[in-house]
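Dear colleague,

Thank you for sharing your sequence with our group. We've completed the structure prediction you requested, and as agreed, I am returning the results in plain text so they can be pasted directly into your records. Please verify that the sequence below matches your submission; if there's any discrepancy, let me know and we will rerun it promptly.
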Amino acid sequence: MANESKSGEAKPKNARPGHDPAKRTNAPKALGVALGRLTRPVFKQRGVALAEIINRWAEIAGPLLYAETQPEKLIYAAGAGHAAALEISVSPAFALELQHLSPLIIEKINGYFGYRAVERLRLRQMPITRSVGGSESQPARRPSSRPLTSEQQARLAALLEGVEDKTLRQALEKLGRSLFGASR
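Please find the predicted structure tokens below.
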């Protein structure tokens, strides 16, 4: 038979020469090794443009756009080569302005890369939040509420009269103070 070894035992059809399945190990491997093998073809084809856009957004967009926008993802169409659509989260109040500035933003991004990396922008309206760490600025804090008048304090105390849970009472009192003390 063709699948028999010198010792007379039958080998499996898919056996590789010099491979002993008994010596196979299931030892853990570093994630970076596996990840590198998986991402290498994609990065060779598309580059790391999105990571570069996100990391350098403040430089590319400038301070005004940086405060109102945040790049989210690159969407590549089949057969489009390097050109992609850049999805950007934008604060709702700034969306129309950004739509008019789209050609300039695309030009700035492509000028930064030196090739046509972004073909168009897709805008997604949502509040923009930045992480606390790093060089990113924190959103402006709202001004504190004004002090309550004695009438407002009495009304708040009357509203909280039946609440027995101490934690709940403190939370409701804080909420009441912020509502009554809000500048109108």
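Summary note from our side: Confidence is low (pLDDT under 50) at residues 132-141.

Kind regards,
the structure core
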